[in-house]
Amino acid sequence: MRKAIPIDTETILHEHGFKVTPLRRILLEKLSASTIPLTVPVIIRKVKTARADSATIYRALNALTDAGILTSHTLHKDKLSYSFVTNDHGHHIVCGKCQAIESISFCVRGIHTSAVAKSKLFRKISGHNLSFLGTCRKCVRAVR
Description:
The chain is 38% helix and 20% strand. With 144 residues, the chain is of the alpha+beta class. The chain has one domain: Orthogonal Bundle (Arc Repressor Mutant, subunit A).
């Protein structure tokens, strides 16, 4: 499981050519502190102290993702989640009912080599995301 990462937001933003703003700073702080990807509604609640509207938050998330500081995931249907980019990648289980997300430390070793060997278009894979969909214990109990 991925651990929260202590970061220097000013250095990261400057290295990627961004001006340091309260919104960008708090986005990086909240996402680097999270052990799971966060959905946009959760991010909006967590950054409410930055006094930014939803459109500004979306623009900031897209800019930070385009710069390679954040990564976006489609973990549940068409809902985007964001996480801080690390050298360590993460895998997740997502509940199809309540959308709870749990990080798992499972990884399929050697999948890169196998995928490249079978691909006709690609010669290099720079990373991967793996998500399992299921039903969490809470939702299974609720059905009983």
